[in-house]
Amino acid sequence: MMPRSFARAAVLPLLLGGCAYQRYQSDFGAAGVEDRQFLTLFWIFLGVCAFMYALVIIFLGAGIARSRRAAEANVVETGRHHRSHPLMRPTLIGWAALIGVGLAGLAIASFFTDRSMAAAAANEKLSVTVTGNQWWWDIVYNSGDASKTLRTANELHLPVGVPTRIILNSADVIHSFWVPSLAGKQDLIPGRENDIIIVPKTTGMFRGQCAEFCGVQHAHMSLVVVVESYPDFVKWWSHQLQPAPMPTTPLAMAGYKYVTTGPCSACHSIGGTTAGGLVAPDLTHLASRRSLGAGTLPMNEGNLYGWVEDPQSLKPGVHMPTIGLEPDQLHAVVAYLETLK
Amino acid sequence: MTDVRADIFDLGRRENERERVEAENRRLEQERKKIARDGPKLKGEKLASRLDATWRRPPGIIGWLASVDHKEIGRRYMLTALAFLVLGGVLALAMRVQLAQPDSALISAERYNQLFTMHGSTMMFLFAVPVMEGVAVYIIPLMVGTRSTAFPRLNAFSYFMYLFGGLMLWIAFALNIAPDMGWFAYTPLSGPQFSPGKRADVWAQMITFTEVSALAAAVVLVCTILKARAPGMTLSRMPLFAWAMLVQAVMIIFAMPAIALCSSMLISDRTLGTNFYNAAEHGDALLWQHLFWFFGHPEVYIIFIPATGFVSEITATFCRRPIFAHAVVVLALISTGILAFGLWVHHMFATGLPRVGYSFFTAASMSVSIPTGLQIFCWLATIWDGRPRFQVPMLYVVGFIITFVIGGLSGVMVAAVPLDLQLHDTYFVVAHFHYVLIGGAVFPLLAAFTYWYPKITGRMMDETLGKISFWLVFLGFHLTFFPMHWSGMLGMPRRVYTYPAGLGLEVPNLLSTVGAFVLAAALGLFVINGLVSLYRGVIAGPNPWGAPTLEWLTSSPPPVYNFAHIPVVESDTPLWDSADGEYPVVTGLRVDQKETLLTTVVAAAPDTREPIPQASLWPFISAIAVGIVFVASIFSPWAVAVGVIPCFIALTAWFWPKELKRHPEPVIT
To answer: Quick check: A114 and B386 CB within 8 A?
Structure first.
């Protein structure tokens, strides 16, 4: 098993594949229509606020500089006889008007941005249901055709340029779905159904993270989002719809037997096998995914060993128990899981 | 016939009655002449020693527990709140150490979640609100020129409730049953299903303690400010700090019931099996957020508004002129207090409520910056037209303006829905509210401590040490919190115990950690200055800063009865407006009993004499009885039913009416 810190440090460079971090999980990512609109509005707000701040600082600085010269006259002005500069009262009124106009302008800009986000969302082409769980994401690609409905976990693939409605539910506590490079966040609330429309504009890999505190492992509830061309997306979808292949090596076969009949199948499901648990991530194409444990570790053989053997030490508090597999069982399970491409 | 005869009899009876009353009045007149009162015949040393004998509490530990002196209670409030500030600050440092580098494993996830929960709860409920109340409980009666707060026993009760609530939370932390679901305790995470054990109950009962305490203190302050002002201190002449505390206390009275309700419903869900927040049983998880933020947003202004009062007082004193446009500042305070109740949904922009409603809350949230902007202008105009001396309190005021305005402007940003959806629950928001709460409330608080320290202790704080700690506080603060805007924009959510390498978060987090230690060292220096100056500080005298308000009229520290004679106020800056150093006073209050003068609400005309209760142990005993109920109800709901009995006994003893003697003195008419 790899040392933990090394395993963690290896996650991002592997996932990034050379793409700059500013785009990976950042408000500056500008990879989706919503985030681009956010950035435009943000710069407008920042400009107006910086202008107002400059006025305050100039007034303060000038006041200090001016008063220091006058400080020699060590006079207390009494309550009955104090004087203000004759222009001060009109300036106060002007300041109030300036704040009012500035705020009205910003409120209108905000309102129109909000409207245009809603308008961009009007014609959705794809619908995905994301259900928040402590501490992983259950993902279902909806389709009118039941045979095309796809269940996966922790890795969301989106076709570039296609408005996608993401329907948000929670199975336990409140979570928040947030992929900063693409769009703002939206909460997943038990007993309610929210949605968010994302229109990705550039292909690439992005990271999302739960943004509402949801318990012990809130920090390790992240999500990989792969934005790809429409043909690539269709290819991915049809591949993911395939049931898991039967293992060919004896070692993997032993693992298959253990996973489908042992404790794993109580929680996990694997398409095409008897493993049908629904309370944990679907494993049908586990090995095709880029991360383990909802973004806790990068997907590779070493981390699979570590995760299967002792998830509690890698993600303390995770609902997957440390079962205490014998070494030969561990080898077999990992060998099988690696076939789930 | 019978009727007429009855009337005649009645007339005779009335005649007798009148004679009897007149005789009684003559007798009372005689007795009245024997009563000792302050006035031309009784003044100076002799008056002081008699008042001191009347007002002094019994000595010893019993007397300490029984004290109803607002200065003693205010001091305890401030010192206790400072102790909690230190504890909350240590937690903050622990969190900053953990976040100094990515993938750090120094602190476990569970422990970290307790740390930020304890940090938020301690700072909001056990430091920020109580410390403002403590300053007010000490200063307000002096500032409005009276001898005691209204309801001094309630005041003592409020302190003990606060102390017990704080102790309970921190003892729970020491016993490893501290809450771990955030200071906001969102359901269903804090509900019975996802927070088994007692952690969430400890949090909810700590809330109950502090809300009872805050409500009691608010009632005390409202009544003191409205009824106990010195004659002549009309509402239009009332100092701005008193205005700020009036607005703040009224806000507490409106805001606290919301959290009393929602935390009681949470406890009920957890211990009685109700389903207020359980969506599976037709409850609603969002109900919590509405009720919590209906309290939680005004809470921010409950902390900030007293601070604006500090700033106004200090700016006036150090610029040696009254605040520009006094009336505008008062109206700004009142409108901030009202608007603060219309903003709570801006904490819930990501919860999927209707968009039309969001637009309203965006507009309301932005509009609250109008009154605040006007106040800032008034302070700046006062500096412009005044002759400021930049001693330590004024330096903090300048630091406050530079810092707080950044927090206010980033608040305008997060008020816009499209911006908030990205910035909400990230470190950008952490930066925003620390700019508002530390820049907007702690800077003025440090100014206020330095400003009123000589009044409370009789000695000045050291100016050089004060300046050094100011600059360190200022730099440390910005080094800690400015990079958080950046880490938030780079996608760092709040309340994460660690973050991965490679997102660009390493540099801003390291800067924040370094800054946090600078800030902590600076605050440590401030505390050391406070301790050393107790013994080494320059003797202050009654009015070391040349301030205009009444608290500077009496000696430093003030005598137990505050003023030998109640002052009379003829302007809004009474100490500046006396040409010869002579100040008019009212005389005629009893010196053989604790007594003060009440005045009318608006015009502050003398209204009535008010007897002030003696020191009593019953507020302390009542607080213990109520505290036991609150703590025990964590473990069994039956504690409420059984515990009512000792509470009832303690409160009955507290309020037991004294035998009604016919007082020889009439009220002033």
So the answer is: no
Q: Are B260 and B208 in contact (CB under 8 A)?
A: yes
User: Percent of chain B at pLDDT above 90?
Assistant: 83
**Calpha distance A79→B572 (Å, rounded):** 6
DSSP character for B428?
Answer: H
Tell me the residues of chain B between 273 and 332 that have a Cβ less than 8 Å away from chain A: 279-280, 283-286, 319-322, 324-325, 328
Triad A77, A83, A86: Cα angle to 5°: 160
Q: Which residues of A touch B350 (CB under 8 A)?
A: 176, 184-187, 211-212
HEC secondary structure over B454-503: HHHHCECCCHHHHHHHHHHHHHHHHHHHHHHHHHHHCCCECCCCCCCCCC
**Which chain B residues are within 8 Å of A77, Cβ to Cβ?**
320-322, 386, 576
pLDDT digits over B258-297, tens only? 999 999 999 999 999 999 999 999 999 999 999 999 999 9
Determine contact: B425 vs chain A, CB below 8 A: yes
Give the up-direction half-sphere exposure of residue A202: CA atoms within 13 A in the CB hemisphere: 14
pLDDT for A85 equals 83
**What does the buried/exposed string (b/e) look like for B632-656 if buried means 16 or more CB atoms within 10 Å of the residue's CB?**
bbbeeeebeeebeebbeebbeebee
Per-residue pLDDT tens digits for A39-75 = 999 999 999 999 999 999 999 999 998 866 555 555 5
The dihedral built from the CA positions of residue A237, A241, A246 and A251, taken in this order, carries a sign that is positive
Q: Is the Cβ–Cβ distance between A259 and A246 less than 8 Å?
A: no
Most distant CA pair in chain B, distance: 107
In angstroms, what separates the C-alpha of B98 from chain A's closest C-alpha?
13
- Global ipTM: 0.92
Mutate to test the interface with B, among A16, A28, A34, A77 (most CBs of B within 10 A): A77
**Mean pLDDT calculated for residue range A276-281:** 93
> What is the β-pairing status of strands A222-228 and A155-159?
parallel
CB contacts, 8 Å: A106 with chain B = 366, 412, 416
Best mutation target, A25, A165, A179, to test chain B (most B CBs within 10 A)? A25
- Contacts of residue B660, Cβ cutoff 8 Å, sequence gap at least 6: none
Mean pLDDT throughout A309-336?
93
Q: Which residues from B are below 8 Å from A68, CB to CB?
A: 388
Alpha carbon of residue B591 to chain centroid: 31
Partner residue facing B496 (CB), from A56, A100, A219: A219
How many whole angstroms separate alpha carbon A190 and alpha carbon A178?
17
CB-nearest to B355 from A84, A85, A118 is: A118
Say if B101 is an interface residue toward chain A (CB within 8 Å): no
Q: pLDDT class for A78, splitting at 50, 70, 90? A: low
User: In this complex, do A215 and B503 lie within 8 Å of one another by their Cβ atoms?
Assistant: no
Cα A340 from Cα A289, distance rounded (Å): 10
Residues of chain B with Cβ-Cβ distance to A176 below 8 Å are: 350, 425
List pLDDT tens digits, range B124-143: 999 999 999 999 999 999 99
Cα B225 to Cα B219: distance, rounded to the nearest angstrom: 10
List the alpha helices (DSSP H) in B490-551: 506-536
Point out the residue among B283, B390, B495 whose CB comes nearest to the CB of A213. Answer: B495
Q: Compute the distance between CA of residue B183 and CA of residue B259 in angstroms, rounded to an integer.
A: 12
Average pLDDT over residues B216-226: 97
Residues above pLDDT 70, as percent of chain B: 96
Nearest CA among A47, A67, A85, A24 for reference residue A223: A24
Judging contacts by C-beta atoms under 8 Å, the chain A residues touching residue B416 are 41, 45, 106-107, 109-110, 113
